[in-house]
Amino acid sequence: MRRLDHDEPGAYARRQVDASGRKLALFAERSPISVIELDANAEITQINQVAEILFGYAASELIGQHSSILFPDRIRGEFSNYWKTIVENGESLSGIRTQNLRHDGIEITCEWAITPLVNQDRRLLSVIAQGQDITQRLEVERMKNEFTNAMSRPT
Questions:
Q1: Tens of pLDDT along 81-111?
Q2: How far apart are CA 97 and CA 148, in angstroms?
Q3: Which value, to the nearest 10 degrees, does the dihedral of the CA atoms of residues 27, 45, 20, 128 take?
Q4: Rounded Cα–Cα distance for residues 42 and 114 (Å)
Q5: What share of residues in the chain are helix, strand, coil (percent, to 5)?
Q6: Are the beta carbons of 47 and 35 closer than 8 angstroms?
Q7: For residue 134, what is the enclosing H or E element?
Q8: Of 8, 114, 127, 129, which cross-links 93 as Cys (Cβ 3.0–4.6 Å)?
């Protein structure tokens, strides 16, 4: 797209940033997995409807909260270590399995892909966490292994 001569300086860049923001919001809204956006302090800035359903909170209850609300006390230190790595390195992490805590107190196991969004100076702007509940899948795998082990024992 070419810049019109009558545009004020920077207007084109602002429009591009706004368009990118709208695309990201649309992606999160329509994603079939949980999407949570966090700021540099690990505070929740946005969540999609799938995340609301997964964790049992309305968006208004989570936005502005520190993301540690979604973790049992015993693993908050582990989360802090992951967060420190994300903030310092600005590198994506995937396949991260964590115990998470629903609003009703039930613990679930989730698998996350974490993508930091950084500017040209490598300053962290926000972090997008995409995750899904894998609790049932892990339970099926455990039962399958137990069954296989029981069947393979000599009688």
A1: 888 888 888 888 899 999 999 999 999 999 9
A2: 25
A3: -60
A4: 12
A5: 45, 25, 30
A6: yes
A7: none
A8: 114
- Mean pLDDT over each residue of the chain, to the nearest integer: 84
∠ CA 107-110-112, nearest 5°, is 145
Backbone phi and psi for residue 88, each to the nearest 5 degrees, phi listed first: -70, -40
Residues 6+ apart with CB under 8 A from 21: none
pLDDT of residue 3: 47
User: What sections of 2-134 are H helices per DSSP?
Assistant: 11-30, 49-55, 59-62, 76-89
Cα–Cα nearest to 80, from 42, 46, 45:
42
Alpha carbon distance 115, 136 (integer Å): 25
DSSP character for 66? B
- In the numeric block, which tokens belong to residue 24? 């990201």
Kindly report whether the global pTM for this prediction surpasses the value 0.90.
no
Task: Provide CB contacts within 8 A for 33, sequence distance 6+.
Answer: 50, 130, 131, 132
Sign of CA dihedral 9, 15, 16, 21: positive
